[in-house]
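Look over what follows to help learners.
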Amino acid sequence: MARAGLSADRVVAAAAELADEVGFEHVTLSALARRFGVKDASLYSHVRGLEDLRTRLALYAGGELIDRIAVAVAGRAGKEALAAFAGAYRAYALEHPGRYAATQIRMDQSLIAGTPALRRTAEITYGMLRGYGLDEPDLTDAVRLLRSTFHGYCALESTGGFGADRDVQASWDKAVDALHLALEHWPRETGRGRETESGRKSDD
């Protein structure tokens, strides 16, 4: 029988708190059970196992992250939107390291397809990039560039990886400026060819 007061939502929320305290990799069903003062078996009424818990945690954290980004970019476009998006992303990653780590795991796409957090993330991210006049496949390429830049910077910053005598915020601002310029001058692909700066297609 399920423990009174426990629910899937409570279990996942507790997992999120635990992830920030001890690290995402240390979130286990046993650790959560101790937190609630129950036996491990009590949690199986709410999650199917560790993989299910981690997937739920990833979606929970992803929802928090995109909610924060949505508030930051509301009413903004172009460089302002990009800077707001980037700033909200970085703030979440640094404030909630365990939850942020959860958002980076590889998940079974069949488990997450159609989830509200995933849809909203796509809508906001791709919507911002369409403001630069991008379309597929350039949109996907641009998303990968932003994600790898933001994640790499945050991962290094969170572990003290930047040792040079240069303000980390100043370097971040320069990185965002560089991304803005890259998006404004993106080497667009159209059909078989690639658009040149003059707008003519090239099959080279």
Notes: The beta strands are 189-190, 193-195, 201-202.
